[in-house]
Amino acid sequence: MAVNYEDQATLFNFVVKQGNGVKGLIDSGMSCVPQPFVQPLSERIATPHARTCEAAQPIDLSQLDGPRHKEVSKQITEAAATLGFFQVVNHGVSVELLELLKTSAHKFFAQPPEKKAIYLKEVSPSKLVKYGTSFVPEKEKAIEWKDYVSMLYTNDHEVLQHWPPQCREVALDFLKSSMAMVERVVEVLMEDVGVRLEEERMNRLMGTKMVNMNYYPTCPSPELSIGVGRHSDMGMLTVLLQDGIGGLYVKLDNGDWAEIPPLDGALVINVGDTLQILSNGKYKSAEHRVRTTNFGSRVSVPIFTAPNPSEKIGPLPEVVKHDGVARYKELLFQDYMNNFFGQPHDGKKSLDFARAD
């Protein structure tokens, strides 16, 4: 199908509304980045050769159950309180499953556009599955160079009925085999701020679980585009599988950006806004972004854990008592979520919605 790259409305319809995605542009023979995808100078990632950060050294989670428990717990809490990102190994998810996930992601996005477009938000047969391009393309100054499918977890039966058949079983295995690790990490983080969460509260604070598969097609001019713009995640913790291509950048305290390099068999964990709010700012939801590349199509598979929409979130009383001040107000998570998804990516601006007056 011939695509008019110059007509922005036609291009937007082709990519976003009809569900051809960025991959559809590449497959149509496009050899330059169309104007709607060209980022403002301030948002471009100047070079793929950024410094790597301390998250290059993974934390061995198997050591939490041995004599090094205190040392490993400290590594986790320090990383969460400073960078907001860390990588883990011996996390309980098999390397074979991680490889299958990457294969399944490529398999889903390799389908003809019409097979993926059935999951577009407006027509998807299930509220559990959404396919699309970019974050909120209707409101963005420039569209992000990413296609994705997001899969919301309710229960195994519904998942196996409604998630896409190309990836449903492997994505469900990933989610279920990761949750014990996620809960253990949250326990370690809570313990360090003097909080012991009851099982029921833990379940409510991580009652929303979603697996995404992200696809970043090869880009002819990576210096003009971005895969994902500057943002923090809204939930508790995010678990991310990277492939070997790389491109995940985190913002440091001094304003520089550093790459979190892919490590075979490792998973990346990052703090979300909810955990920053609960900890009254001790743990940092890290601002991060993703660059594009011209030497291969990248996939990543994050698990997002977040509160139930009906849950109230705010600084935990034990932490406020220790700190002497509440830096965030209490609010309904549904309201926080509506604000988060109602705006384009803009660093950590979404957290302003929760700040104490």
UniProtKB/TrEMBL annotation:
The cofactors named for this UniProt entry are: L-ascorbate
Q: Does the keyword Heme apply?
A: no
A single GO molecular function term of this UniProt record: dioxygenase activity
Q: Which organism is it from?
A: Brassica campestris
Keywords assigned: Dioxygenase, Iron, Metal-binding, Oxidoreductase
State the family it belongs to: Belongs to the iron/ascorbate-dependent oxidoreductase family.
Q: Could you confirm whether the keyword Nuclease appears in this record?
A: no
Q: Name one GO biological process term.
A: coumarin biosynthetic process
Designated name of the protein: Fe2OG dioxygenase domain-containing protein
Residue stretches making up the Fe2OG dioxygenase domain: 204-307
